[in-house]
Amino acid sequence: MTTSTERSTSNRRQRRKVNIKWAQAFKQAPWRGQIQTAGLFMLSLVVIIVIASIYLSISGRAASAGLSAYRLNAERQTLERQIADRKAKIAVLTSVTLMEQRAKDMGFERISSTDAIYVMVPGYPGKQAVVLAAPPGINESSRSLVLPIYRHSIWDWLFQGINRLSESVGGGA
Amino acid sequence: MMTFFLQLNRIKILGIFLSLFIILIGFQMIRIQVSTHADTLDSWASNYGTEVRTIQSERGYIYDRGGHLLAGNKEVYELGVELQYVRNPVAIATAMASIFGSDYNTILTSVSTPYDATGSVYVTLLNFLPLDQIDKLDALKRQYEDANPYGQNPDLPSLRGLVWTPHLQRVYPEGNLASNILGFYTYYDRDKGKGYFGVEEKYDNLLAGIKQKVVIPLDPYEMQEIPTAPAGASLVLTIDREIQRTVEKILDKAVKNNGAKNGTIIVENPKTGDIIAMASTPRLDPNTYWDYEKLFPAGTSYNMAVSQVYEPGSVFKVLTMAGALDSGAVKWDTPFTDTGIIEVGGWPIYNWDRGAWGNQNMIGCMQHSLNVCLSWIALEMGPDKFYEYMDRFGIGHRTNIDMANEEVYPLSEPGDPMWYSINLATNSFGQGVAVTPIQLIMAASAIANDGKMMAPHILHSYIQNGQQYKTNPQVVGAPISKETADILTEMLAISLEQEASDALVEGYRVAGKTGTAEIAVNGQYSSGKTNASFVGWGPVDDPQFIVYVWLEQPKSSIWGSVVAAPVFRDVVKELVVLMNIPPDDLRKSLAAGQ
Predict the structure, then answer these.
(1) Residues A88, B58: C-beta atoms closer than 8 Å
(2) B132 plus B258 within the same structural domain
(3) Which among A167, B81, B168, B566 is placed 20 to 30 Å from B299, CA to CA?
């Protein structure tokens, strides 16, 4: 009896031991669980940091581009004024009165009709009126200087991408 | 409590602090949104978030047909003080007085205006200053700033608060060249400046471009294309500046030498109606347009060529003869016996010399400019035909040349209360009828252009939005046939040659007619005061130019043949060189050998 009792106790212990061994085989060690949690947290943190960095980078570049646009606009206005001013200065320096005086100072004389020697130049159409710009045709000026892609925010880009994707998945018309 | 914290590990404590920090940030955000200062902050954001800017486009340029700039814009500066930043008004007033010669006390009073954020913020001191003067001021300001940074020491000079802003000012690089064509722009009035006279007035809207107020976001995140006002359209005129300059010199000399009150010369291409040159006296330098009232007292036209009507006299006979030939009333060889007098409506008509010129044909009538003959011709035509032809030639109508202030005098016709039967006779030789020089040259150009009358115009093309639009010549009528035009041109060329006129030019065959018109003073014609004129064109076989000369009240001689014909010759002698027109013989031989 005693022997059988001891055997049955020994069997239970044996089973328990087996059970314990089985349970331990499927349970993470505490430190591993902590590492996984920390890893997931770090992963989400990295994702957030990456998104934030991208957002900050793009925002910074957008702000920088905006400031550059203002600065370039001011620079363009300055250049336009300077170009106008230079044109006026050149016109003064090459005005007919000054040019005539310079020609006289250099020893040139006004030619008379009897002194002129005329030569027929084939293909020469004679004095023509000036052409200062292209004739009417393609209207280049109506085109926007800033391409549409540079006016999109990251959200515009994202939402448009999602829309396009949903349309393609949904088989939109 | 202490036990609670002791039971927590370091990570949990850090978590709690961070959570509290985030809650605090959230709380602060909500507090800012609902605080009583939220509206103020919002209004600040609105004020600093956008800027309302007035965009004034640059006024368009004006070029001659060769691309030489006749009207442009130069950079000048407005000088003012931002009262908030002024540190030393005395130093500013002293600097202004020494550099610009400004009145010290006036400047000191202006600069000493107390700053008021709701009112006095900025005071304009001077305007339209050139860059070199601004450079001097800038150097002085820097020198003071180095010695007294931020103007902190009130005992040392400082020009802080003094600011200058660049802007454009209308400029006419050629001075008074073609000023009667260009007009002027009142640039001193920066808000309401506008063009007066000539093309500046006629094309004011086109040149001015756009003036608009725009709201510009200052937030760089809201970057967008900053609106710009496209520059006003630029004009390319039909005139040639060398020819214009030459014609002006000849006119000035003629007016001076002949003691004339004023004068005008028009050079036109009869085939296109292009005005190649148009000179009048007096001429204003449009850079100093405020001299206008001094130069042009009441009654003086800015541009006689388009704005002054007058009785043209015998040059008008060209139109009478053209109508008569075209209607078949006479032929070139129709004989006429001039007795020196003809009675019309009970009034006697005499020749210019009160003489009788005997047997003539129509060439002789034109050569000797016989009033009696032309009166007879008009009677032969009859009033209906005569006035029909005058109407066809545009007499009594505006030419609609694209220049401001064109005048017109109505032509009295049968049935009008002011018309009497003698008018038919006097009108035939250019008395009792009034025209502008541009009207007359347009009418005469029909004879030089195979009977087709071209609209006179000054605009060759305009440039807008980077594209050049050319204007096309317009035929405004064909008052006579090509045959009539050819015959009359030949008659006029022969009459000049037979007369050995002062209008003849060696090597070039020209056609033309002199005119001497008595001027009515208090309703009576005064033989001592005349309008001397000449209209002519050439070369006869292929007219490239038509020239009209009018000298008002010359004193050296009253006769057009004496004072106006030589001016025509002088102009043509220069024209043929500047327009590259070889002498007739050479031109024909070159053309034949082509």
Answers:
(1) no
(2) no
(3) B566
From residue B117, give the alpha-carbon distance in Å to each of B83, B84, B111, B125, B181: 10, 8, 15, 19, 48
- Could you please report the per-residue DSSP string of A117-141? -----TT---S-----SBPS-S-GG
Query: Is B220–A67 a contact, with Cβ atoms under 8 angstroms apart?
Result: yes
**Angstrom distance (rounded) from CA B415 to CA B412:** 8
**Is the confidence at residue B527, as pLDDT, over 70?**
no
B294-329 pLDDT, tens digit each: 999 888 899 999 999 999 999 999 999 999 999 999
Number of domains in chain A: 1
Global model pTM greater than 0.90: no
CATH assignment of the domain containing B388 = 3.40.710.10
Q: Where are the alpha helices (DSSP H) in B412-525?
A: 421-428, 437-448, 482-499
Question: At B101, which CATH number?
Answer: 3.30.70.2110
Mutation site for A-interface testing, chosen from B9, B61, B468 by largest number of A Cβ within 10 Å: B468
Q: B207 CA to chain A: closest CA distance, Å?
A: 15
In a domain, B581, yes or no: yes
pLDDT at B14: 85
A58 lies in which domain range? 43-108
Distance of CA B306 to the CA centre of its chain: 11
Contact yes or no for B258/B229 (Cβ under 8 A)? no
By Cβ distance, the residue of B174, B468, B587 closest to A133 is B468
One domain for residues B259 and B124: no
Q: Do the Cβ atoms of A132 and B463 come within 8 Å?
A: yes
- The residue segments making up the domain with residue B275 are 241-592
Contact B559, B553 (CB under 8 A): no
- Chain segment A16-62, per-residue pLDDT in tens: 555 555 555 567 778 888 888 889 999 999 999 999 999 999 888 88
Inter-chain touch B73–A85, beta carbons under 8 Å: yes
Tell me which chain B residue has its CA closest to the CA of residue A138: B467
On whether residue B565 sits in a domain, the answer given is yes
Residue with tokens 């009788």: B356
B193 occurs within a structural domain: no
> Which residues of A are less than 8 Å from B460 in CB distance?
129
pLDDT tops 70 at residue B467: yes
Question: Chain A: residue nearest B227 by CA?
Answer: A73
Query: pLDDT digits over B366-412, tens only?
Result: 999 999 999 999 999 999 999 999 999 999 999 999 999 999 999 99
Q: What is the ipTM of this complex?
A: 0.85
Q: Is residue B222 part of a domain?
A: no
Same domain, B258 and B374: yes
Quote the number of domains for chain B: 2
